[in-house]
Design goal:
Two copies of one chain form a homodimer.
Chain A (H helix, E strand, L loop, with lengths): L2 H5 L6 H5 L3 E5 L8 H11 L5 E5 L5 E2 L2 E2 L13 E4 L6 H10 L4 E4 L9 H17 L2 E3 L6 E3 L4 E2 L8 E8 L2 H14 L4 E5 L9 H10 L5 E6 L5 H12 L4 E5 L4 H11 L6 H10 L3 E3 L5 H11 L6 E6 L2 H13 L3 E2 L4 H10 L10 E2 L10 H10 L6 E6 L4 H4 L5 H17 L4 E5 L7 H8 L4 E2 L2 H23 L10 H12 L6 H10 L8 E3 L2 H11 L4 E6 L12 E5 L2 H18 L7 E6 L5 E10 L3 E8 L2 H4 L4 E5 L4 H10 L3 H6 L8 H17 L3 E12 L2 E4 L2 E5 L7 H6 L1
Parallel strand pairs in A: 1-2, 1-5, 5-6, 6-7, 10-11, 10-12, 12-13, 13-14, 15-16, 15-17, 15-18, 18-19, 19-20
Antiparallel strand pairs in A: 3-4, 8-9, 8-11, 21-24, 22-23, 22-24, 25-26, 25-28, 26-27, 28-29, 28-30
Helix pairs in contact in A: 4-5, 7-8, 11-18, 12-18, 13-14, 14-16, 16-17, 24-26
């Protein structure tokens, strides 16, 4: 049993479809301007190993291959059909495919859901046929498919290098651009490509699972305009990233981009910030620039090893060492602190004016002796404080810049670097300003699979991906997801009652839910009568109190005049209660008012918001941010898919830009970080345990050095039918 | 008189030094590993037009050229000496140069101030000789100099393309990397290069002025680790950017980078954020990634035209149109809103499924007809809402991807784009995924000087630089700097008194300074006696009052218990006064206490900070930010060099990330923006008029819809002697 099967119990049906023994090309043509011609040429030129069945009622022979008048007429049973005909013909053809035993179809035509209501109807019709006849659909509106290791090339793309990068891209131009980049400046080739198009049947999660299982793919690379089932995708990504790197570029980081994407593949936008957070939580390397996709995939794919974020820089130019230091720090990486032993060894081989503090600047020591750079790399590789090694400067060009006689020494240096890369588990990344020239020493490193870049920024981007992946793999093992909570029957009844009454939870019910699962919620009492009011005064003693209306009909309590703060003594409480009731009745004379909630005022501290939403794409998501303008104006919010691990909870606090406020700014003491992490975890577990909970909003929670106070809690109840827990876990 | 001379009255002495009729190479050598050999080779190979005088006591002939035993022995008087000998020999050689009439020297040796105290002493010694003998110094610790249009190449760098990009770089590797990039992937070449090294004599401002005046330079490009005289540099930059683009990469954006830079060229760090703000204020195009330096310089240099920020995108791929839209929005550019007329014209030439909303997606219309892309560009170029045009996709590769027969049409398209680029004042920028292949159509555009990039991100970076430069040139004309204030004699006396007493201004004096120049400062009274207290009560009536201690010795009034708020009635005021005095005496029993300041409480609003600092590198700088954690934790602060223009003041408010708080968030009304702009301008003019003002801190100023209230004002008085205004303006 291979490790992949260990993680993913069933095998993707795509293996059969993407490595077919035969293919029907429906709409095959002898006209060179037609897609049905190009596909034929691609299949023949690339030496497709299976049978090719051109389908065209008007031709006997296409490109020298016998053509068939219809799918039904094909003598064999190919697993795959490529359909090159216009949109309107597709539903009928899918049915024909199914009747002939064809398992999968690639639909090139556009004119479906991405064009509006009429197209969406046609897409539904097509899917009805596909489901009725058991045909899996790639597309529609796809740029095509290739599987180079099977010599299946339905794109008629010339000169694509075969290799181990798998690509799923909703942009055909993106594939083309990556292919050209790889061919001219890259070090990798491709295994499988699929354009998911509108994903009306097979979606990103299925494709990713396939790439995870595919033995020819060492890194999965995705250009995504929109996920269909984001939650499923995250689950698959979690499994796949444990085995191999996954690189995702998600478009729609701005409103302008979201609008453009929706007219391209009809993709649902969703929040970009949330998407990025959730993908990273699942171990995905998210890249933000399209020109970083290939370098990052290349670096992760070539190296297949990743440790932490402490980088040792070896440089032969002080200016570029400075640039590298800036970029590393900005990327959240650190300059490894070299041990005294390491520095001593460096001093022994370098000129006295060299800097042996990281970034190491050889300051001329290597001008006549470039292989010394490899020696320096060996020295820092032996240092336990170092996770990865970054060579910056002229290497490869010494024999060009200084003297041809240096070529031998430079090649010896390259050989030593190759040896080092085999001996160490620390990744080596090289920036050389001679990269565009491809001199012999760089060619040697290139052959050996050491990633080489032509820009410091690209190199650092790769180092960041390596560092993050290294950390992720370690932390994943250290921190499994927190175990699920056992839902309590009496709370289930609370939800059932609210659902029956068509309302959300009352604040005190919401707080009871939290309290029952170990979240500290300040004491409070529902006061419905003078007697209860007197009891509340007796219970809370001298402390100043807060009072809030209790009504299922009043959502915005402050607006209704339903909140009074800092009340002291029974008389004041009574007056406040009367004013609240009067004001709320004036606000909404139909509102059913149960009474008021009385609780001691919270201690001063930092206000934060903890929320749960059910995202239409990603399902239950925990949200955390500082209160007020931080969330609303600065959008300084972190998201994690529920359920969280302890590391997830901690990292979402660390991610907040204003985290220094939590650590204790301006002379204030820091807040109790562990209590906050525990709170986030428990909220995650509650949301996981009660599917009846649709949304939750703790706003604000007041944090201080001694813990926290949940000042306000809202729970929105799911109105739709809910699958029982048993059904869920069986699914 | 050329326009350059119109701006800069005197001509830089560098013209003579960098275009010498002869050059002495001190330390010239026949040993190929020596710098003194390489320089000779470079001069000879590049065909230097003047006389070459190798100086070496041990040789008669170097590389076939007669050598001289000493500088004194040289028969002619070269303007320039290249000194290749070790640091210790330099002071003596400089003196010799001066005695022989040599005007300038390039000092390659390192081992000066960048290495510590001993080196700094040697540098001072060298400068003493240089000043005594009238020799201008480039370096020391410089990588060298070239002036390709004069065939002066002291770097022995092969294959550097001659062109119109001038480069000043404190990193030799950076020059080399730009040269290689230009040679292999670029469209430009170089005019002059100087490595300023330690800038012990000639600094960045001098070099920039030279490039501004140099007729062979169309764009000045600088890699800077540190400025020596930042204020002078800003002045020169302001003049030069009015004539030609200036591109600056400033290293040290992080602490790690600042540390690395200081061990490289001994550069003073300074605040990166401030440096960027001030450079941009002077019209400089600041780039943050080192791999964006050449693309931006290239785009600005090639096009020499720049308008605003409204970009029209023409694309043949929906995915890449989406990526372009995201990047443009993130860069602060906008997708131009195409007029109905433009959209109609596009509809007439494109397929029905094409999107004629910007980004224009031709959706297959050009597959058999690539020149249609040029037609689309012509159509959008005619739209008044469009400032620049961005072509995204496969252009240049249609004949490769689809059919060779398309080559003719593709070339016609290129020709039409060349014609358009000549006819319109709107810049055209092209991203093609075929850029690495350099196909014929792209070569044609290349020859015509239309910038072509291999990444969407790089293209957008160039479009941003173009948009910002266009806006800058327009706004500069529209908004000159605000005229200086006339300082008032009585306020001059206030400063003189404070200086004589060795103290800063009292708060009421600081407020008087503001008030006298038209800044609205709430009424307040200094209370020294019970009688004055009664007068204050009478003057302010029923309003709640604030009270603060007045003492030159107590800086942190709150810490000393010297502030009380919300006081009502004479009894409360009296009690508060007594408590403040007691508390302040307990805090510092030596403190001289003048009394207390009484003022009405400020209305609620948004707290901001307005400050003036005298930066050691850049001189007087205005600072603006929101109060509290915004400044201290989020570092959300804007800086401008004083004096400001009205546009400067407005843009610094717009730059703040939390500006939405000012515009009125969470149901609050927005603040009075014009009053704020006026306040910033007046503070700038006050700081400009009173050189005795060393620092100013208005913290907080409370802004609301009706104006603002300066709640606290501190003015730090300059302790050092001050040049009089007359002297200043004469200098």
């Amino acid at each position: 049993m291979n490790p992949i099967e260990g993680h993913l119990p069933t095998r993707s049906p795509l293996h059969e479809i993407l490595a077919p023994s035969g293919i029907a090309v429906v709409g095959a043509s002898s006209d060179p301007t037609k897609r049905g011609y190009k596909a034929m040429v691609g299949l023949i030129k690339d030496g497709f190993r299976g049978a090719i069945y051109p389908v065209n009622p008007k031709a006997d022979l296409i490109l020298g291959i016998e053509a068939w008048p219809s799918i039904a007429a094909i003598p064999g049973t190919p697993e795959l059909a490529l359909i090159c005909t216009p949109a309107a013909s597709v539903p009928g053809l899918i049915a024909e495919c199914g009747r002939h035993g064809i398992k999968g179809a690639v639909i090139l035509a556009s004119g479906f859901a991405e064009t509006g209501a009429e197209g969406a109807e046609l897409e539904r019709e097509m899917m009805a046929q596909a489901e009725a006849h058991g045909v899996r659909v790639i597309g529609p509106n796809t740029s095509g498919v290739f599987n180079l290791h099977h010599r299946l090339n339905l794109l008629a793309l010339d000169n694509v290098k075969s290799g181990d990068v798998g690509i799923i891209s909703q942009s055909g131009n993106m594939l083309l651009s990556l292919a050209l980049e790889a061919q001219y400046n890259g070090q990798v080739g491709f295994s499988t490509y699929v354009g998911p198009g509108n994903q009306s049947d097979i979606g990103f999660n299925d494709y990713l699972r396939y790439l995870g299982e595919d033995e020819h793919t060492r890194v999965a690379t995705l250009y995504v305009e929109g996920f269909r089932d984001g939650r499923k995708f995250l689950e698959v990504a979690r499994d796949v990233t444990a085995m191999k790197p996954v690189v995702v570029y998600k478009s729609g980081s701005t409103e302008a981009g979201q609008k453009a994407a929706s007219s391209h593949t009809g993709a649902l936008a969703g929040s970009y910030a949330m998407t990025v957070d959730l993908l990273r939580q699942a171990g995905v390397s998210v890249v933000h620039r399209s020109d970083e996709i290939l370098p990052v995939a290349e670096g992760l794919g070539l190296l297949q090893k990743a440790r932490g974020k402490r980088v040792a820089v070896i440089s032969d130019g002080g200016g570029q060492a400075t640039i590298a230091s800036d970029r590393l720090a900005e990327a959240g990486l650190t300059l490894a602190e070299l041990s005294e032993e390491t520095r001593q060894k460096l001093r022994e081989v370098l000129f006295p004016q060299a800097s042996t503090v990281n970034p190491v600047d050889v300051a001329g020591s290597t001008d006549a002796n470039p292989s010394l750079l490899a020696t320096c790399m060996e020295i820092v590789a032996a240092d336990d404080n170092v996770d990865s090694i970054f060579l910056v400067g002229m290497f490869g060009g010494y024999s060009i810049r200084f003297a041809e006689s240096l070529l031998g020494d430079e090649m010896r240096g390259a050989e030593a670097m190759v040896d080092l890369s085999k001996a160490t588990d620390k990744p080596l990344v090289i920036y050389s300003l001679y990269t565009p020239i491809k001199p012999p020493a760089l060619r040697r490193l290139h052959e050996a699979g050491i990633p080489i870049y032509s820009s410091i920024e690209q190199s650092v981007r790769v180092l960041r991906a390596l560092g993050e992946r290294g950390d992720y793999l370690q932390l994943c093992e250290q921190y499994p997801r927190e175990p699920a909570l056992e839902p309590k029957p009496e709370l289930g009844e609370t939800f059932a009652r609210a659902r029956a009454e068509g309302r959300d939870l009352f604040e005190y019910e919401a707080k009871q839910l939290l309290r029952e699962h170990g979240i500290e919620v300040p004491q409070e009492r529902v006061v419905r009568s003078d007697a209860e009011l007197a009891e509340a005064v007796a219970a809370f003693g001298e402390a100043p109190l807060a009072m809030k209306v209790v009504s299922k009909d009043i959502l915005h309590k402050s607006d209704a005049g339903g909140v009074k703060l800092n009340l002291m003594g029974e008389a004041a409480l009574r007056r406040a209660r009367d004013e609240i009731l009067a004001s709320c009745r004036a606000y909404d004379d139909q509102a059913e008012i149960e009474g008021v909630l009385v609780a001691p005022m919270a201690k001063k501290g930092v206000e934060v918001i903890v929320g749960v939403i059910r995202d239409p794409i990603f399902g239950p998501v925990l949200m955390f941010g500082l209160g007020g303008i931080f969330v609303e104006i600065l959008e300084d919010v972190a998201f994690r898919s529920i359920p969280l691990s302890r590391h997830d909870a901690r990292s979402m606090v660390e991610q907040i830009k204003a985290r220094k406020v939590l650590e204790g700014a301006r002379g204030e003491p820091g807040i109790d970080m562990e209590a906050l992490v525990e709170l986030l975890l428990t909220v995650s577990r509650i949301a996981d345990a009660y599917p009846e909970l649709s949304e939750l909003d703790l706003n604000p929670v007041i944090l201080n050095a001694d813990g926290y106070a949940v000042v306000d809690a809202r729970v929105i109840v799911e109105r739709e039918p809910i699958a029982s827990h048993d059904e869920e876990s069986a699914a």
